[in-house]
Amino acid sequence: MDSVSARDFLYADPRPTCVFDLNTRADQPGASKLSAPFTNPALQSQSRLLRDVLEGSDHNAGAYFRLRTWVFDINSAAPSTILEDGALLRSGPVLGYTIDDRWRVLQWQGANPQLHHSAVPINGGPSEKTAPSLPPLGQHHDNRSEEFREVLGDRDHAAARLALMHATMEIVDVGFFEYNTNGELLYANEAFYKLSGHPKMGTSGYTWLDCVYEEDKEDLMQRWITLGKGKPSTFEMRWKGPPGALSAPEDSAPENDAGGCITDIAAQKRSVSDALKRAEALERAQISERRFTRLANNANVGIFIVDLEMKIVYCNSEWFAISGHPVVDFADVSWAEHLLAEDLATVDKYWNQMIETKQAVNFQLRWQKPWLDAQGTRGTPHTWTMCCIYHEPNSDGSITSVAGFLTDISHLIWAESAQKQRTDEAIEAKRQQENFIDMTCHEIRNPLGAVMHCADLIESTASEIAELLKDTLPSLPNDNRSRYESLSKSSAEAVDTIVSCSTHQKRIMDDILTLSKLDSKLLTIVPSLSQVDDVLKIAEKMFEVDARKVGITLQVWREQIDGEPQVNWVMLDRGRLMQVLINLLTNALKFTQKEAKKVVTVSMRVSQAKLSEQDLGVELVPVSTVRDRHLTRSHTGEEVYLYFKVVDSGCGFDHEQKLAIFERFAQASPRTHSTYGGSGLGLHITRELIEMQGGEIGVSSQ
Predict the structure, then answer these.
(1) Under 8 Å between Cβ of 368 and 339
(2) Owning domain of residue 420
(3) DSSP-derived secondary structure for 182-251
(4) What's the pTM?
């Protein structure tokens, strides 16, 4: 083993080879395991065979014992061939020989008889074959002669070339194989086994005819005969292999020995299934490309692809139609010239954002092309579009190109503009209408003051005339006296009617103006220091005359509960509070004057705690807008709650009507207006004024 060329030869030999050192183990023939200082890659690649050689196992104990015995038999220097069956010999016979009386070499010959060397059986019987011209290594003790070195060098070179060729064949996906003239497989790479389904080498009596379909055998035999005559051939054949590998083109050529005789047939097998798969994949890609092209050409949005320099690589026909760009080659597209100049900065902004974040972005662009509506009239001076762009990443994550969509939204912009114009017109019309109503109310309310003043003057003058004629009336004739009394009575009724109608009309005008201020948010709350008892006194004084005229008993008092503080002065807007009480008392008198029982009561209660609906005996209306409960900015002093309750003996209403009476222009029922009059604004205004002062309003009816 000191010879470098011998070691290289054994290393490159495609046969599994191992070498044992007799000097190391000769003195230990009973050792349980073998130790090989050298194994070549061909043996190392067969881990199971290597394990059986060096360690042995239960199922091959006999063969392992005979192998170990031969290795350490110092009298067995001649080359031998082990020819028994067993796990150790699964790859064929084992050739054994000795080099320099020290190195015992074992080489597994495999199923290929061409690789076998001449040897005698291990039991010392006659040789099975004639020794080849090239003696095995170690056959002669003088193996260091120049002649042997030259022969050995050529063999080493050929073995290395063969090993390299075999390694190359195992890498490629083309099947390589070699048959002898009997149709038995001598060599095949892994790709051949996968494509053809041929069993691995070692199956005796198995030929290529066993791997093909029955109906193909006649034609293939003709091909085989052609190859046997020394003529190369290319043909297709079907193997009984796995699905997808049934058809394969095959290039075959005969191999001749030195005497010109055909020794075996070598061929290469290419998988048609892989080619078919590639062809099908290419066809699918072409179909997909055609489908995308049809989709892009018929889409109602513009589709485009640009490179990293913002140059158009592809765009469909709709892109040209939307942008107004003339139809030219992609390389000649100049989109920036057709875009509004002020929108170029928008493109740069969102382009950089997309590049940095690698996320799709959407933005609006305006093109110089005017947009026309369906009738062909000019709609907008520019074409408005919604643009969406996203990046196309490479395998390493870098951006290769940018794709996007262009959607025409000019009709939406036009509709928004038209809607805004109509909205502005409606708001302006409403504002003018409100101004007209406010002006009309002011114009009507101003003369009402004079009308009411004159009515009061007529009433007071009639009273004075009646007082002056009181002493002279008895002396007048009966007809004159009756005539006078009739005129005085009708005049008094006329004055009452004028005052009543004027008051009603003035109240409507005041409600409309108040509502206008509420809508315009011009009505404010201005608290001032007021005495709470004065509020009740003023309310009673204002309505006692009206109540007496219609026979209503008006009762006003303040509730005082034990434990509650005696509060006299508070900060509140007395004018707005009186407006609330006036609306409530007016309604109470209006709905009570035609009832049999005519009683209206007004009560007030002061509390430091907020009372519940159960405590008050009413159902509170949900607050429409949450406002600050504090009326003064300083928020100084003790917080108290004022509760006013107005109770009348009127007709009442049901639960559904209770929900409607506080709405704008709403009344309890349709007959309310015909029976009692009114505009449906009083209670709505009352609710707004109460909520503006941080309060709530409720109702209870039977």
Answers:
(1) yes
(2) 416-515
(3) TSBEEEE-HHHHHHH-PPPTT-TT-BGGGGB-GGGHHHHHHHHHHHHTT--EEEEEEBS-STT-SEEEEE
(4) 0.41
